[in-house]
Design goal:
This protein has helices at 2-11, 15-44, 50-77, 85-108, 139-164, 176-198, 201-208, 213-247, 251-288, 295-299, 316-340, 345-351; strands spanning 113-114, 137-138, 300-302, 312-314. It has 352 residues and is an all-alpha fold. The protein has a domain at 49-275. The strands form 2 sheets. The chain has a two-stranded antiparallel ribbon with strand order 1-2. The chain has a two-stranded antiparallel sheet with strand order 3-4. Helix 6 (176-198) packs antiparallel against helix 8.
């Protein structure tokens, strides 16, 4: 009887935590059901497919980077390190420096997008590199994804090293380190907003270097991006550290859902998005050739019949179909999370 009562008490949740979960799920629902499907629809029906390509590879990189980070967590903490933490520390340092160099070098030299207008390598379907049009890959985004994975590797390898030297597996709650990272992120954001209100970056570039304001503008933008990036990484670090402490006492029950979410959710979604990015122009060319009851003209729209697929985009009807499919799948997942909240709370919390 006492065990049953203790189990019931342990499942209770304070009103503050319940409010945090409620607000979090509201924003997740708005993002999955509203923002992402709407963004994909807008990019599908725009005059150029470049935005859709950039969006697909960015979403794919986000999903695959999340999957890699989950694999790092599983290898380090389930139930003990399979690979020594020092290996991830070294690899994470290399990836962090490499990602930072890629992001800064490509962004500040004007080579952010690949291929460019002068590229040529086995051109197909009117593309520059294979069938890819200019600007199909955002190299700054690739560098930031590599940077994120590298920082996560170093972060979790340090936590794993500390756990090897300490048998303590308690939930430490909101530690001073977590509070410090949140406060630092808020202060960085406040300083950015005040500075952005008082100074104009274009005018500041002309004031610093009247003879070469473009280069000064690139340097100022890079500093601003690093400043805001520090706030984002501090916020993510605080959240990751709190989640780490929360999972630590019940790690045996949370590692399997975490691995399932990474392998069955993020990895497969990232692979699908990567295939869409890779085969987008061949797919449009093939769909435009459909003659059955006029499906080609119903789903695709080309400004020039002689420039397929360069001048093509998807019609609003095709956008509605994809939008409905994405929204329906996300809605089903959210309803499944509501249904599974009581019996599989760890899976729902980790997946969110």
């Amino acid at each position: 009887m006492q065990q049953a009562q203790q189990r019931e008490i342990s499942e209770r949740m304070s009103w503050a935590r319940a409010m945090i979960f409620a607000v979090g799920y509201f924003f997740i629902a708005a993002l999955l059901i509203g923002q992402i499907p709407g963004y994909i629809y807008n990019q599908m029906t725009s005059a150029s497919l470049q935005g859709l390509e950039l969006g697909m590879i960015a979403l794919a990189a986000t999903c695959l980077a999340g999957f890699v980070v989950i694999q790092v967590i599983v290898l380090l903490f389930d139930p003990k390190p399979v690979i020594p933490p020092v290996v991830f520390s070294a690899l994470g340092t290399v990836l962090t420096l490499g990602g930072l160099v890629i992001a800064l070098a490509t962004g500040m030299t004007g080579n952010q997008y690949f291929p460019n207008a002068n590229s040529s390598w086995f051109p197909l379907l009117g593309g520059k590199v294979l069938w890819f049009e200019p600007g199909a890959i955002d190299l700054v985004m690739v560098g930031l994804a590599v940077l994120f994975v590298g920082v996560a590797m170093v972060f979790y390898s340090v936590l794993a090293t500390r756990e090897r030297n300490s048998p303590d597996r308690r939930d430490l709650g909101t530690t001073p380190a977590i509070r410090g990272m949140i406060i630092a992120a808020i202060m960085i954001l406040i300083l950015f907003m005040v500075g952005f209100t008082l100074f104009n970056d274009n005018g500041l570039a002309y004031a610093i270097s009247p003879g070469n304001p473009v280069q000064a503008q690139l340097i100022i933008d890079a500093i601003l991006y690093i400043w805001l990036g520090a706030a984002i990484f501090l916020t993510l670090g605080a959240f990751a550290l709190r989640l780490h402490y929360l999972m630590r006492p019940v790690r045996k029950r949370t590692m399997s859902p975490l691995y399932a979410f990474g392998a069955l959710g993020l990895a497969q979604t990232g692979a699908i998005l990567l295939l869409v990015w890779l085969l987008l122009y061949p797919l449009v060319t093939w769909m435009h050739s459909w003659t059955f009851i006029g499906l080609g003209d119903y789903l695709t729209l080309c400004a020039k019949k002689s420039a397929v697929p360069q001048s093509c985009a998807f019609t609003p009807q095709a956008g509605y179909i994809i939008d409905a499919l994405i929204t329906t799948n996300f809605f089903i997942l959210l309803m499944a999370a509501v249904w599974a909240w009581k019996s599989h709370r760890n899976l729902v919390v980790i997946s969110s």
